[in-house]
Amino acid sequence: MQFMSGLVVFTIAWWVAFFALLPIGVQSQWEDGSTVEGTEEAAPKDHMIGKKALWASGVACVITAIAAVVVPRLLAQ
Q: In this model, does residue 44 exceed pLDDT 90?
């Protein structure tokens, strides 16, 4: 797999993984009972974007590595 192809696969895999991980572990202010004045009750208390971005990077690396091994073998047939 060429560099640009790998970069495209990584980018697409990263965004898919990131959006899949966004709702995991989110607790709203209403569920926690700590609603801040002037905000929506359903707003998340702690969204953990950094942690989810790191997880998405790891998942995207694994998907890119699998694609780098599988795609050339499929094209060689």
A: no
Q: How far is CA 64 from CA 22, 32, 35, in A?
A: 20, 38, 41
Lowest mean pLDDT among 10-19, 34-43, 66-75: 34-43
Per-residue CA distances from 10 to 3, 16, 29, 30, 42 (Å) = 10, 10, 34, 36, 32
User: Which has the higher per-residue pLDDT, 59 or 42?
Assistant: 59
Measured CA to CA, the distance from residue 54 to residue 14 in angstroms comes to: 10
End-to-end CA distance of the chain: 15
Radius of gyration of the CA atoms of the chain, in A: 18
Q: Considering the entire predicted model, what is its pTM?
A: 0.83
